């Protein structure tokens, strides 16, 4: 069994930037009791 070090479990900088960009533009609103996701551009 391979043992992972802390450095190996960290996501890459590219992945972190993608998550940050997505988090800034993705919003959720409630419409008629349902939650709808939408993206701001």
Topology:
Layout: H1 6-9, H2 13-25, E1 26-31, E2 34-39
Structure explained in plain terms:
This protein has 41 residues and is of the alpha+beta class. Helix content is 41%, strand content 29%. It is elongated, with a radius of gyration of 17 Å. It has helices spanning 6-9, 13-25, and strands spanning 26-31, 34-39.
Mean pLDDT reading = 81
Which structural category fits the helices and strands?
Answer: alpha+beta
Give helix % range: 40-55%
- The protein's oligomeric status is single chain
Secondary structure: number of strands: 2
| Uncertain ranges | none
Helical region count? 2
Secondary-structure element sequence? HHEE
User: How widely separated are the two ends?
Assistant: 45 Å
Radius of gyration, in angstroms, nearest whole number: 17 Å
Question: Order of strands side by side in the largest beta sheet?
Answer: 1-2
Largest sheet: 2 strands, antiparallel
- Beta-strand portion reads 25-35%
The 3D shape can be described as elongated
Key words describing this protein structure:
41 residues; alpha+beta; two-stranded antiparallel ribbon; 2 helices; elongated
Task: Give a summary of the structure in a few sentences.
This protein is of the alpha+beta class and 41 residues long. The protein is built from two helices and two strands, in the order ααββ.
């Amino acid at each position: 069994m391979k043992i992972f070090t802390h450095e190996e479990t960290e996501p890459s900088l590219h992945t972190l930037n993608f998550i940050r960009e997505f988090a800034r533009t993705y919003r959720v609103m409630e419409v008629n009791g349902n939650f709808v996701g939408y993206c701001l551009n």
